[in-house]
Amino acid sequence: MTKKQHDTPNLDQLEGGPWPSFVTGIKRLAEDNDMAVDLLGQLETSYQTKKGYWKGGTVGVRGYGGGIIPRFTELKDEDGKPVFPAAAEFHTLRVMPPAGMHYDTKTMRQLCDIWEKHGSGLIALHGQSGDIMFQGADTDSVQAAFDELNEAGFDLGGAGPAVRTGMSCVGASRCEHSCANEQKIHRSLVNNFLDDMHRPSLPYKMKFKVSGCPNDCMNSIHRSDFSVIGTWRDDIKVDQTEVINFVNERGRKYTIDNVVSRCPTNALSLNDDDTLDIDNRNCVRCMHCINVMTKALSPGDDKGITLLIGGKRTLKIGDTMGTVIKPFMKMETEEHYEALVEIAENVVDFFAENALEHERTGEMIERIGLVNFLEGIEIDVDPNMISTPRQSSYVRMDTWAEEAEKWEEKKSAES
Amino acid sequence: MAEQPRMPIESGVPDPMPLMHPTMVANFGNWKYHDRPRPGVLHHVSHSGDEIWTVRAGTQRQMDIHTIRLLCDVADEFADGHIRFTIRSNIEYMVADESKVAPLVEKLTTSGFPVGGTGNSVTMIAHTQGWLHCDIPGTDASGVVKALMDELHDEFINERMPNRVHMTTSCCQINCGGQGDIAINIQHTKPPTIDHSLVANACERPTVVARCPVAAIRPAMVDGRPSLEVDEKKCMCCGACYPPCPPMQINDPEHSKLAIWVGGKHSNARSKPMFHKLVAADIPNNPPRWTEAADVVKKILRCYQQDAKDWERMGDWIERIGWPRFFELTELPFTKFHIDDWRGSRHSLNSSTHIRF
Description:
Helix content of chain B: 25-40%
Oligomer: heterodimer
Largest sheet of chain A: 5 strands, mixed
Number of helices of chain A: 15
Largest sheet of chain B: 5 strands, antiparallel
CATH superfamily of the largest domain in chain A: Sulfite Reductase Hemoprotein, domain 1
Largest interface: A-B, 126 and 114 residues
Radius of gyration of chain A: 26 Å
Shape of chain A: globular
CATH topology of the largest domain in chain A: Sulfite Reductase Hemoprotein, domain 1
Strand content of chain B: 15-25%
Shape of chain B: globular
CATH topology of the largest domain in chain B: Sulfite Reductase Hemoprotein, domain 1
Number of domains of chain A: 3
Number of strands of chain A: 16
Number of strands of chain B: 14
Order of helices and strands of chain B: HEEEEHEEHHEEEHHEEEEEHHH
Strand order of the largest sheet of chain B: 1-2-3-6-5
CATH class of the largest domain in chain A: Alpha Beta
C-alpha cells in the first residue's frame, strides 16, 4: 500500500510550462513508491523554508572505499524521528557511463529495471562529473543495487579524494573535427587508475577529461586536472571549390567579417578569386574558421593531442585554467597510448606525494611553480607552456649557462 | 565454510562501441562535414558517403524510470534502438534515414521533449543537485533550471542568438555547474552561524582552519568547549568551512542570495578560454520560480542578442564593446563589488587610456 502523497504547493508550480518537469516524474514514481512520496515531502519543505536537509555519512559497497554518496535526512520531529521516514536514507550510486555516453535501449532499460527493483527510480543523466547518478537507495539496498549494475557491466565512479569519473566527447563516432580516438584515450587513462578511483587516498580529486578538438566540448581545460585535447600539426585542409561556394552563398562581406577577420592571429586572407589563403605557420588551431565553413575547411592529417594540467573551480585559491605541459603528442600506436598513460602516472604520483590535503593539482602548481612540477614529472620546459616570459626580475639565475646548454642540446638532437 | 561475499568486478569505463549506432561504428573517425537542416537537427556526412541525422531534445536530467523508458520507446520506434546524451543532459537520437527525421521530431515534441539545443541556441543549463540531493545546497538546482528553461524554451528550439549560449547554475560557491556564458550562482552574504555545542564532535578543527581561503577561522574555547571562531572582519562568506564542519551553517534563507556572472567560455575558438565575471548580485533566492533571477538573465540575453555580432560569444561581445557599455546596455548597477581584490586582481584593472566615450 503506497503512502498518500503530501501536499506540494510549491513543487506543483514546477509542473506547468513547456520544459519537461522532474516534479511530474517524481510524482509518477510516487504513485507506487513510498521513497518518492517522502522525497517530495522533504523537497517541498526545502522550498518552503529555503533550507537543505541532507547530511553525509559513511555507506559503501564491499571492496570499494568510494563511489556511493550517502544521504541521511536531517528533518526530524521532536522525538528525533524522521519527518519523512521512507526517504530518511537517500543514497546515490555514482556509476560510470560508457565513454561518450552512448547507450542502446536494451542496456538503458536494464538500468531502469535494476533501479526500479532496488532504488527510488530516479536517475540523473548525467552528473557534472559525468556519472550516471542513481539517486535514492536506502542503506540496505546499496550493495544489491551495485551487484546487479556491476554484473550488467557497469562500475562505480569516483567520489572524495580520488581519481574521478572521466568524460569524453562524441568525437570520432560522429564529429568531423575529431583529431583523436577520444573514447580510447578516456578509457586508457581512467581504467588505468581504478585503484585510485575506488580506494580514495589522494590529497583531493583528480579529474580526466578528453575533447577531440580545441572546441573543447567537454570543458576539459577548466574542469579537469588532466585535460587531453585533440589537435593537428600540419596544414588546415581546404577544399577551395567549397570556399568559393561558401562565398557565393553567404557573400564576400559575411566571409570577411565572420571568417577572415575573426581569425585570432590574422592567418586568413580572402583571395581575389574567392579562394582562401591560410598562413598555417601562424594558425593557432582555434577552430573558428573550421566551425563556420564546415564543408570547406577541416583539421589536417598529422593529428595528435595537446595536454594541459591544473584546471579547477573556485575553492580554495580561486579558479585556475589548465596550462600546457605537452604541446603535441602523436596518438596512433599502442606505444603512444602507453606514453600518455605514463605521463598520467607521473602526474598522479607527484600529486599524491606533494599536494597538501584538499589541494588540487592546479593549486599545487601555483604554490610550487610550474618548473618544480615539470622537473617532478620529468618533462622539459617548452615556450608553448607560457603566454609571455617572466616579467619579474626576482629570480636567481646563476645556472643560466647550464640551462641554455640543455636547450641547445635538445635543439641539436631534434635536428 | 561460509559463502564468500561477492567482490566487485573492477571493470572501469564501459566500451561504447557495442552500444553505438551502427552507422557511427561504420564511419568511426571518417566523418567529412556537417550542417544543420533545422534547429535541433544535425546532419553529418562521411567520406564513405554515409549520412546520419541527429535529433537533439531537452530533458529534465533528473529523470524517473518511466520517462527514460518513454525515451527508449521513441528510440526503438525511430532510431534503431540507440541513444546518447550530451554533456548538458540533452538526449540525441541518430537516424541513417532522412525520412525518419520529421516524424521523430514530431514524436518528441508531442511527448513533451523540446527539440533544439543546437547551434546558436540557448541550450540546456548545466546544473547541480540542490535541495534534492546535495548536503550543502543554498538553493535548488533542478527547480531553478526547470523554471528558467520554461522561460527560455523559445530560445532552445530556435537558433537566433549570435553564437551558442551555455548557461550554468550552482547552488553553492564551489560552483559545480562550472563556467558559463551566463552563470547563476549562490552568493552568501553573511558569515557562518556556528553551533558551538556541536563543533567539537563533528569537526576536525585543524582541517577546517586550513580550509579557509582568508585565514579567518581560529580555534577557540566557547562555553568551556573546544570550538572554532570566525573573524567576521576577514570572512568573505564563501562557505568553504561548511562542508568539513556542518555546525558552521553558511546557508541562510534570507541572506544566501543569487549572483549572476557572464562571459565564461571553454572553447578555444577565436579567443582563449575565459572565466565568467560578476555582473549582478543580491538577487533573492525565491522558489519555486526564481522570477527575479530569470528577469536579469532575460535582460542580459536580450542585449546580447541585439548588440553582438554573428559568432561573438557573450565574452567576445563584451570584450569588443567594453564593460562600461555592457552595464549601460543592461542597465545593471556597477558597484565597488565589481572591482576584484583577490590575488592577481591588478590584471583586471585598466592600466591604459583605452576608454570609450
